[in-house]
Amino acid sequence: MKERDFEQQYEPLWQAFERQVEDCRQGVEKPQTTFPEQYRQLCGQLSLARQRDYSDALVARLNHLVMRGHHLLYQREARATVGRLGNALVAFVAALRQNRQYVLCAALLFILPALVMGIGTYLSETFMYSLVSPEQAAELESMYDPANDRLGPERDSETDLAMFGYYISHNIGIAFKAFAGGMFLGIGTLMVVLYNGLYLGAVTGYLTRAGFGITFYPFVIGHGAFELTAIVICGAAGLMMGHALIHPGRQRRLDALRTASAEAVKLMYGGVFMLFVAAFLEAFWSSSGQLPVAVKLVVGAALWLFVLWFCFFSKIGMSREPD
């Protein structure tokens, strides 16, 4: 096809595309639903023009249109992505409040054993060894030695990014076990939540007794707001599925599980996102031995208040709650 024929065939389309881009940029109208398809066609026409060695002026014009279309399409997709994330966040908070009984149950299963184990370990060192070996206890002391430049698992300061990946893998593993444990009538979830509560209590009591509270508490308070809350939330999701299997009501167990899973997955998604935030804070903020203790404690307390307010007291998701 000659260049002149090519231009005559597609000129109306190019002019219409250019008008639509200009109108969208000026806010006169929003991109039409056919805009992505028109953009792909324009990209194909640009490719043809280059392959057929059409004039530089034509190729430059089409390339300019493609770039303007790409910019507009990117903005549109970015806004759509932000909108989807916002909707997912609202759905998470709404599901959290609608199923607050499961969250409360999971919280008690986590907090009460932690308190009992923490007090017992603080009063008696041997109580610690019912859950943690002497070698592990010695490693904990090494991790939270005030002389360390970086707190937590031993590593070089240049490996923060690698530790970020490690924390993500570790935390997501716990969350998935707590969630998937609901498939075993909730027994798996109970074991995961109870064990993590007992372990947290044992570590807290032992390090407090050993005099490492000055490093341990500033380390855990920041990321703990997200991590510990997320473990409870994922445990609540597992309990929902376990309860559906044990007490399906008038539904078949498989149908009851499907219904419960639809809500449980919303909690799981939110919990996983919180664990990503926790991993980031643990790798880049909590582990720093250079930050003042007072700063870490104040910021950590603020994060706890924010997480609790956002999940349970903010107005987000209230419109989706049942009357």
Tell me about this structure.
The mean pLDDT is 86. The protein is mostly helical and 323 residues long. The chain has two domains: 3-85; 99-320, no CATH class. The chain contains eleven helices and no strands. Keywords: Membrane, Transmembrane, Transmembrane helix. The chain crosses the membrane at residues 102-123, 164-186, 198-219, 225-246, 267-287, 293-313. InterPro entries: SpoIIM-like.
Number of strands: 0
Distance between termini? 66 Å
Number of helices: 11
> Helix content range of the residues, please?
over 70%
Rounded to the nearest angstrom, the radius of gyration is 28 Å
Biggest sheet, in brief? none
Note the beta-strand portion. under 5%
- Global mean pLDDT: 86
Q: What would the principal axes of the Cα set say about the shape?
A: elongated
Q: Give helix and strand order, one letter per element, not per position.
A: HHHHHHHHHHH
Structural class: mainly alpha
Show unreliable segments: none
Number of domains: 2
What key phrases describe this protein's structure?
0% strand, 2 domains, mainly alpha, 323 residues, 11 helices, single chain
Topology, element by element:
Layout: H1 3-25, H2 35-51, H3 56-98, H4 100-123, H5 125-128, H6 134-143, H7 160-180, H8 187-209, H9 213-246, H10 253-286, H11 293-312
